[in-house]
Fold this protein.
Amino acid sequence: MIQLELAGENALIVYLPAQISGKNLSQLQQLQQQVRLLLGEQLQELLPSYASLLIVLKPDHQGLLVIKSLLEQQLSLTHFVDEQAGQLVVLPVYYHTAWDLQAVAARAGLTTTQVIDLHQAIEYRVYAIGFAPGFAYLGQLDERLTTPRLSTPRAKVPQGAVAIADRQTAVYPAESPGGWNILGLCPTALFTPERAGTCEALMPFAVGDRVRFRSINLQEFSALGGQLPQELC
């Protein structure tokens, strides 16, 4: 079920079954550890997604075909252990009806309070980080909250916007365009590049970690450093 293919002059890609699942996530985490040990200094970067792992090599690697053969041999010997749980990260959210909370509730036949309760009730997994540094794709939402992306994306989504699309949820780490349905705002900084070169992490989570949301009021939001967009002030 696992395939290994060339992906350019300095890269290979490992494909798992095309699905969003905890099993895939666990296997990708274990594969990353094995690839790091196997390739050592030849490895430049590992880029995991829902069902694949892109392996980027340094230009002075020993040869793609040689490395592909080594990886294939390693894969044939690999025995994956049961799903591993990463650290738990709790993100506070000031839920607000200014954006899409009411529309999501109406579509689902729920009250806004029920939407908030359902969004908080699940422990999500970080399946991938992309789109922007600190943008974590979290899954999966309660089926009752399944909501398509906006037909017309917003030109400006505020920093910290907590949003949903299909059966995923995420927090926008910085102001940007976006087409997800916004439920509220999170005051937690999700990407701090000024920490580069220190022992502190640039992001509060990594692929494989668990995330829960916790509802807070406006006073708590402000105390945690959150700032409302101008149109809500």
Summary: The longest strand covers residues 88-95. The chain has two domains: 3-77, 88-232. The mean pLDDT is 90. The radius of gyration is 20 Å.
